[in-house]
Amino acid sequence: MDSLDQRLVTHLRHNGRRSVSDLAHELGVSRATVRARMERLESQGEIVGYTVILRADAVSMPVRGITLIEVEGRAKERVVDVLGGYAEITAIHTTNGKWDLIAELATQSLTDLDNLLSRIRLIPGVTASETNLLLATPRSTRARL
Questions:
Q1: Model confidence pTM above 0.85
Q2: Contact call for residues 105 and 116 (beta carbons, < 8 A)
Q3: Cα atoms found within 13 Å of the Cα of residue 123, Cβ hemisphere only
Q4: What DSSP state is assigned to residue 69?
Q5: How far apart, in whole angstroms, are the C-alpha atoms of residue 119 and residue 100?
Q6: Directed axis angle between helix 31-43 and helix 20-27, to 10°?
Q7: Which parts of the chain sit beneath pLDDT 50?
Q8: Less CB within 10 Å around the terminal CB: N or C of the chain?
């Protein structure tokens, strides 16, 4: 992916419904170039889809955080399956080092967060966790709201 592709992807991350004409104008290239780049990125699997981000997804859950999770032995897939069933968990990542998983969380209140953390700690196979609250997001590649 070259710098033009990266700029194109940045614009699409902020608004995936922008017209090819608008994107071409913003990037200083022709519509045909933008269309060809998008098609190539899609066919190569770099762009795997487009989505809608609802305002409610971004602002209705004021308490956000990440939980680092340590999992015993071979329980990772089972733990991921359980975590995936919790509506308050917006993403699950595998990682290396001391922690096996990182879960992104979003709840209505600190009490709801506390309840969620209690449920996570009771999942068979979870041996330890550490949670950090997200206070502000000064920069994100996700849609601007």
A1: no
A2: yes
A3: 27
A4: E
A5: 18
A6: 110
A7: 145
A8: C
